[in-house]
Amino acid sequence: MINKQSRRSFLKTTAGLGMAASLPMPVMSQMSDTAIPLIKRAIPGTTEMLPLVGFGSSAAVMPIMQTGPDVVSELLEVMVNLGASVIDTAPRPLDIDTAFGKVLQDSRWKDKLFVTSKMGRGDDRNNRSITKQQAIAQINQTRRLFNRHPADLIFNDSMLDLDIHWPTLMDLKDKGDARYIGYTMSNTSGHEDMIANMKKYQPDIIAVNYSLVEPDAEQRILPMARDMGIGVIIITPFGGGDFFKRVNNHPLPDWVADFDCTSWAQFNLKYVISEPAVTSIVTETTKAHHFKENILTATGRLPDAQTRRRIKAHFDSLAA
Ligand SMILES: NC(=O)c1ccc[n+]([C@@H]2O[C@H](COP(=O)([O-])OP(=O)(O)OC[C@H]3O[C@@H](n4cnc5c(N)ncnc54)[C@H](OP(=O)(O)O)[C@@H]3O)[C@@H](O)[C@H]2O)c1
């Protein structure tokens, strides 16, 4: 019986077989949250599996000096209890990253996380460029405060001065200080540059914006990543919240039950994670119940190609 089996041994048995995706809802509903197997995807070229939904940490972490660590701790607890692991970070002021680093090192989850970090983008709003040495200082500070050796994944933030910073990232990977390296782009206007860079610098993983509100990445970047064996982490998966402005006053259609979807948030996220090039996504929230809803999107059935077209057509039909 699946619900009597430990989650760990269940996952070991089913990993790579796609069984988590095909469990029927009656079986799923008999299982406690901690026993529901999350759908995972392998980082291309490796056997390392990432759960499909993770945590965009900015909104929870930025006010940590005012809120204290409890909000972030609660979200990480939800995340690891459900079996998710990916958390996206960026260099923040020293006091904030010191406090956040302590939370990340909590023994309840330290070894269960996959933490992304970033380099190459400065604080000056008028000029985000920083030097090679300043970018190295950013990396060293993050690694010291988060105490992750090697770093799981270091991104060049927004492909800023990638020509300058890519050799630094390659060097970190060659020395074993970073397991994976890549770069990010959160604006559709930067997709052409990302396509050019994917041909020039071979990243292990890219991060790109993709959702029903901003679907452009599915035209070229995602197929290209798939062909090139590049992993993809989706950022801004709700368009920074714009998705909800489009759907909030509309009823959720009945047919979403066919792909085990129970909310508008899952309507969008099921669309995003059913794109085969997607390795994982990071959703930003400060609310534990939202985060749980998001993580549980990576359970049950995913929409097939025909249903994906139906989802998109339905979303596009809603008034902007
Ligand atoms: N350059 C880069 O690398 C870059 C740039 C941008 C973003 N990112 C990454 O992408 C992450 C997410 O992007 P984003 O900040 O644009 O946010 P997002 O995830 O696209 O949207 C966040 C918004 O969605 C709401 N939300 C989340 N889950 C919900 C749910 N289940 N039901 C209803 N509302 C929900 C949140 O409100 P509540 O708080 O009320 O839940 C918030 O208003 C960031 O945290 C960051 O890690 C990276």
Structure commentary:
- The structure is a single chain.
- The strands form 2 sheets. Strands 3-4-5-6-7-8-9-10 form an 8-stranded parallel beta barrel, surrounded by 5 helices. The chain has a two-stranded antiparallel sheet with strand order 1-2.
- It contains 15 helices and 10 strands.
- Helix 6 packs parallel to helix 14 and helix 7 packs across helix 8 (132-146).
- The chain is α/β, with parallel strands linked by helices.
- Strand 6, helix 9 and strand 7 (178-185) form a beta-alpha-beta unit.
- The protein has a single domain (47-317), classed as TIM Barrel, CATH 3.20.20.100.
- It binds NADP nicotinamide-adenine-dinucleotide phosphate.
- NADP nicotinamide-adenine-dinucleotide phosphate binds at residues 56-59, 88, 157-158, 184, 186, 207, 235-241, 244, 265, 282-287, 290, 293-294.
